[in-house]
Amino acid sequence: xxxxxxxxxxxxxxxxxxxxxxxxxxxxxxxxxxxxxxxxxxxxxxxxxxxxxxxxxxxxxxxxxxxxxxxxxxxxxxxxxxxxxxxxxxxxxxxxxxxxxxxxxxxxxxxxxxxxxxxxxxxxxxxxxxxxxxxxxxxxxxxxxxxxxxxxxxxxxxxxxxxxxxxxxxxxxxxxxxxxxxxxxxxxxxxxxxxxxxxxxxxxxxxxxxxxxxxxxxxxxxxxxxxxxxxxxxxxxxxxxxxxxxxxxxxxxxxxxxxxxxxxxxxxxxxxxxxxxxxxxxxxxxxxxxxxxxxxxxxxxxxxxxxxxxxxxxxxxxxxxxxxxxxxxxxxxxxxxxxxxxxxxxxxxxxxxxxxxxxxxxxxxxxxxxxxxxxxxxxxxxxxxxxxxxxxxxxxxxxxxxxxxxxxxxxxxxxxxxxxxxxxxxxxxxxxxxxxxxxxxxxxxxxxxxxxxxxxxxxxxxxxxxxxxxxxxxxxxxxxxxxxxxxxxxxxxxxxxxxxxxxxxxxxxxxxxxxxxxxxxxxxxxxxxxxxxxxxxxxxxxxxxxxxxxxxxxxxxxxxxxxxxxxxxxxxxxxxxxxxxxxxxxxxxxxxxxxxx
Amino acid sequence: xxxxxxxxxxxxxxxxxxxxxxxxxxxxxxxxxxxxxxxxxxxxxxxxxxxxxxxxxxxxxxxxxxxxxxxxxxxxxxxxxxxxxxxxxxxxxxxxxxxxxxxxxxxxxxxxxxxxxxxxxxxxxxxxxxxxxxxxxxxxxxxxxxxxxxxxxxxxxxxxxxxxxxxxxxxxx
Lengths: 597, 173
Known about the structure:
The complex is a heterodimer.
Chain A: H1 4-7, H2 17-33, E1 36-40, H3 41-51, E2 56-59, H4 66-74, E3 80-83, H5 87-101, E4 105-109, H6 113-116, H7 119-127, E5 132-138, H8 154-158, E6 164-168, H9 174-186, E7 192-198, H10 199-203, E8 205-208, H11 227-239, E9 243-247, H12 250-253, H13 257-267, E10 271-273, E11 288-291, H14 298-304, E12 309-313, H15 319-322, E13 333-338, E14 352-355, H16 358-365, H17 375-397, H18 406-417, E15 422-425, H19 429-437, E16 446-448, H20 458-468, E17 474-479, H21 480-483, H22 490-496, E18 501-506, H23 511-520, H24 535-541, E19 545-549, H25 552-564, E20 569-574
Helix pairs in contact in A: 2-3, 3-4, 3-9, 5-7, 5-20, 13-16, 14-17, 18-19, 18-25
Chain B: E1 5-14, H1 19-29, E2 34-41, E3 47-56, H2 58-70, E4 74-80, E5 85-96, H3 103-108, E6 114-119, E7 123-130, H4 132-142, E8 147-152, E9 156-159, H5 165-172
Antiparallel strand pairs in B: 1-3, 1-4, 2-3, 5-7, 5-8, 5-9, 6-7
């Protein structure tokens, strides 16, 4: 079977077609709600996707999902399928798409290895609260449990890493389960849902009717807001002398960026972000005091242990944020704005838990809080920033040594894009540097694997991000180790002509592990040095324009050339081999023990 | 250091395939041993009730409840201390018929919640129910006669306080 036409997004007209497709989808949607008699389960799957407004899915065909692919072929004018080069690529692309659009990402794979290859991305989406619907084919119902060819218990395997999952064995279950899957994936605290569909259910015919799901009786998506609690939180904020905010992705997922900005501007509270909260507040906002956590900024980490009220908004006190819990913000009262009741008191004991949708709770508290500016307290952040600049940032961004630093590459990207790009980073030193130094003007612009730390995330996620936001510049920043984990997705980029920009920061090491080996394992560099291929030749093999730079005088022009390119582009920057990322809170140490060198 | 103690966890769920896996995975992820488990219908149609017994600290059992409660198909999860519940276990002992008239066995059968439920030429079966310690005691006494088989159920428990599941389901709808 030839899927070529199905997966190819035509060059030139390219991704812009996706915009037109939305209107098509809307007209289709009207038809879908009408009953359709005697259609196959496979066709029903497509109709469900269209009814949910899906116009783009990522996947990889195989035996047990072939009936659905056959229908995709028929519906290719309404539903784009992107053929990735590995199912992990499909799921990460769907994640990238979801993260920049706020819509549900969809990935599709066959049974057995196709399904298990999705698992890493599903786990990543679960821990980073990304809305996904993953559809897997399964052997026919009568073969379940017989160890049939490509049979695997994907429902069992994915259970601990999905928000919900379900195995469909009858075609008639498809509309209800698909509707439920989308509702669960996107509502409340979002997350991945896996729907496994046996092959007989894809073939069987039934009378299709689609009803959107708006509630599930055992599931409360958003806890009720309690006005007395909000009152108490406002009182606590109003009397605080040294309040500090730590905000996370909840602000972005809750579409509460405006409410958040208004709230901090009224209260004048310095606000620090977690890695996933990044871009919810513009980088140059005067109340943005930087990143908390292991490689976060000096001030917000130090002052976590000096503030009198710590207001956590849409974040979950990850251990990379808190360091040693026994010495974390012990002096402070803790207010936690949260949508997920299971997060309250999970890691840090809260004094006031403001449950609910953060867009609503922030709007509610706004009139109750006093206008304030906390100039002396904010000065402390400024003072710490001056120290950090002198000891760390200056050397990262304007180095005097010969070798290139990762920081100066990010700095050049900032200059070339003025902070308007979507930055997709992978996992490791380059990720920390990208998050520390990349400039953001707009929300949903930082895409990175935070909770799971999945190396190989960035290249496919950038594909999804660019397809989700075709009018934005999308730059993947990847280490040489991470790049080689999903390098096959260059094939997807070549076939779809998606114009992503790829920057590989090559230090010929698994840099973050090497840094730990240097600092905590007496420089025993066990299996961290990489003998790398010629990345430029590889990119050129995929007909991608490519360049490698290793000298400072060539860096700015190389970055500008990359940004100016209308097509996908590969830029390798050979950086200093043994640079370290600082500041750093050593694993298990207190946030106030953050090191500058 | 917070002390570990026995908690009984009651979970009301939808009646779907796989929910047991989803719940037990939450204990597995946190390396918590499940001391006993019972699954059955509940007082509400199509709603199942899981009863887990675990030994852990109160702060951890609260976190577990949060995670259990978070599962889509869980209607509600509760934890109870021993004094908040009325609970029971049942055990079956299979013993060779040669001991049937042994005084010690007859003596044991005087315990008001033990009786013989089957007798054949070769073996007889004693059913006993009560608290865990009652059954443990019975086990120690009967072991010397050579237990051909022994099996014990998980705990079943009814709470003293009300668990308003029907009202909750109304509220969801």
